[in-house]
Structure formats: structure tokens, C-alpha cells
Amino acid sequence: MKGHGFLLANYVPGTSLLHRAPLWLKFLVVVGCGMASFLIVDWMVSAAVLAVMSGLFLLTGAGPGRLLGAIRPLALVLLVIGLFQWWQLGAATGTRIVLNILICVVAASLLTATTPLQRLLDGVVSLAAPFRRFGADPERFALTIAVMLRSIPYIAGSFADVRDSARARGLERNPRALVLPVFITTVAFARQTGEALAARGLGEAGD
Residues 6 or more apart from 8 whose CB is under 8 A from it? Predict the structure, then answer.
């Protein structure tokens, strides 16, 4: 299967100030951007915040290609959302909503581009540790996120490969030619992942 990015930028090794920033500060930026998406009511402010976040992303050395790669999969969805909100609430509101979504995506990409996956998962375990007293298992929570981060690009890539194959055979308008192979591939991937976790003693509720 071809490699496909999905929504978030992959880690880019570097020694920039953003790479060296504490993980808690990066988490705080992501949370702050998420909250800002509900608080900002002026599309020009949203545009300014997005410009700042995009500039910070480029300072990591990732390059504009990675930034566009993180946004491109959302293009169609954002277009639909923007046009619908434009029709319902006006151009300014539609533009603001789309820009606010992009702010969240760029902020999350900034986190993943400057933080190795293992360090990110260790941070999740640390953040979830206080909930252990309530019966939560931080390690399992981090494992779930790791599996999700691995599974989403795989499934997205599988769909893209099946779509390309169907188009080559003139079957791009046939739902069965698109959905069935992806379904079979996804189930097989889920079984392989489950078996790999079970082999390491990680799938059982009582572990």
C-alpha cells in the first residue's frame, strides 16, 4: 500500500525552539487553539491567528509541503462546511468557522511535527496518571492513541489505493468496488493488530 498522510504532520527531527519547548506547553497551545475556535467571532482575527500558527509551523523546518499535506485531506469537507455556513449565516461566519478549524489542525500538526511519537505518548500517560485513582489505565489510554494514529493513515491509504484501482478499471462509480475491498482490508488490519496486542498480553481486560 502506498503511504498516505492524514490530517496531522509527522515528526520532523530538529533542534528549533519549538522542538525544545516543554510538552505541557505544546499541549497547552493545542488546547488554547481549540478553545479559541469557540471564542473568536471575527474572521480577520481567525486569519491572523492562523497566519501566526502557520508561521510557527514553518519555523520547525517542516516546510510548506508538510503543512499543505496536513490540510489537503480536509479540503473537501472544509469547502462543504464553508459553503453551508455561508448560505445559512453569511460569508463572514462561514469564513470564520473554516479558519478556526484550520487553526486547530495546524496547532495539532505543530505538536506532532515537533514531538517524537514515544515522547508524545509518554506525555499522555503522565497527563492521565491522576485518573488512575478512578480506575483509569493511562498506559492503555496511550496505547489506544498509538493504535489510532497508526490505523487512521493505513485505512485512509487503503481507501485511496482502492479508489485508484477502481478508477483504472472504470469502476469509480461502483460503491461495491470501493467499499467492499476497504472493508475487508480494514477487518484484516484490525485482526492483525488485535493478534499482535494479544501476543504481547495487551488485549485482555484483566491485564
Answer: 70, 105, 108, 109, 112
In contact, 142 and 124? CB cutoff 8 Å: yes
Spatial distance between the Cα atoms of 25 and 55, rounded to a whole number of angstroms = 18
pLDDT at 2 over 60: no
Are the C-beta atoms of 135 and 88 separated by less than 8 Å?
A: no
Residue 68 in contact with residue 57, Cβ under 8 Å? no
Domain residue limits, the chain: 1-115, 117-207
Mean pLDDT over 40-50 rounds to 89
Burial letters 59-92, b for 16+ CB under 10 A, else e? ebbbeeebbebbbebbeeebeeebeebbeeeeee
Output the pTM of the full model: 0.67
pLDDT of 206 reads 47
Distance (Å, whole) CA 184 – CA 162: 11
Cβ proximity of 4 and 160 under 8 Å: yes
Taking 3-state DSSP, the helix, strand and coil percentages for the chain, each rounded to the nearest 5, stand at 80, 0, 20
Phi-psi region of 172 (alpha: psi -120 to 50; beta: other; left: phi over 0): alpha
What mean pLDDT do residues 59-74 have? 79
The three grid cell numbers given for residue 103, joined into one nine-digit string: 487553526
Exposed, middle or buried, 198 (CB in 10 Å: 0-12/13-18/19+)?
exposed
